[in-house]
Design brief:
The chain has about 250 residues and is an alpha+beta fold. The chain folds into two domains: about 150 residues, Phosphorylase Kinase, domain 1 (2-Layer Sandwich), CATH 3.30.200.20; about 100 residues, Transferase(Phosphotransferase) domain 1 (Transferase(Phosphotransferase), domain 1), CATH 1.10.510. It has eight helices and eleven strands. The chain has a five-stranded antiparallel β-sheet, with helices on both faces. Helix 6 crosses helix 8. It is globular. It starts with a helix and ends with a helix. The mean pLDDT is about 85.
């Protein structure tokens, strides 16, 4: 084992990380900068995390890991990569949101704000009755939330399951209406890649979600509707009227 791998293994051991094969070690090596290590230590010390497992998913900006939280509850640990995330793509979704007018414009400042934004969006959505992963807490570039799945196996995306098309589509529209009229936010990046299926559809990845007062909220909603309609039409659902869907979701607001 070379020095770099040994150093990573030592960090993983201190963080109670259980999965240490070569593939996992590489993934952890990509996300474990000193600031992230310190953040995870603090979450461990405060009892939010008991153990950390392997990666559930890896995206362009973040990696999600399986974990155990308080009372051995299954949790998802989402870590935004500070050094390699393209924070410039985040700015259009932060600008115009009055909740984040005074953010620091540094790379880490924007990523920390983005993480906090996703936590707050999930909280608002959950409080409005939208089926999303229940948020637990966030700190710097780390977001803890409900694990969607069973016994360490994550739930699939809707693109990967056979489902009752009309019933599933209707449940998604109901969720989007609650999101808009109750939480007063727009998902802004909705597609078959951002909806899980675990007994029902579950909306995920809400860092980019904006309030309905955001100057681009309406165009983002139209884009969400078009993406959703195209996917379900490819699956065989017919007669989807995007204008009617828009009116159903917004409820005349």
């Amino acid at each position: 084992m070379d020095i770099k791998n040994r150093e990573i293994d030592e960090k993983l051991a201190r963080l109670r990380i259980r999965d240490k094969d070569s593939d996992s070690r590489k993934i952890w090596g990509d996300v474990l900068d000193e600031r992230t290590i310190l953040t995870l230590y603090r979450l461990l010390k405060r009892g939010f995390i008991e153990a950390i497992g392997g990666a559930i998913s890896t995206g362009k900006e973040a990696t999600v890991f399986y974990g155990l939280g308080e009372d051995a509850r299954e949790i998802a640990i989402k870590i935004y990569r500070i050094e390699t995330s393209d924070f410039r793509e985040m700015e259009p979704y932060l600008a115009g949101d009055p909740r984040f007018d005074n953010i620091k414009r540094s790379r880490s400042g924007i990523i920390y704000t983005w993480t906090q934004k996703e936590y707050k969006n999930l909280k608002r959505a959950s409080n409005a009755g939208v089926r999303v992963p229940e948020p637990i807490t966030s700190m710097n570039n780390v977001l803890l939330m409900e694990f969607i799945g069973e016994e360490e196996v994550p739930a699939p995306h809707i693109k990967d399951v056979d489902m009752a098309l009309e019933e599933t589509f209707e449940k998604i529209i109901v969720n989007l209406r609650k999101l808009y009229t109750g939480a007063r936010i727009v998902h802004a990046d909705l597609s078959e890649y951002n909806i899980l299926y675990h007994h029902q559809p579950i909306l995920i990845d809400m860092g980019q979600s904006v309030t309905i007062s955001h100057p681009n909220a309406t165009s983002f909603l139209w884009r969400d509707i078009k993406n959703l309609s195209k996917f379900f039409e490819r699956r065989g659902l017919e007669d989807l009227n995007e204008k009617d869907l828009f009116n159903r979701i917004t409820g005349g607001l």
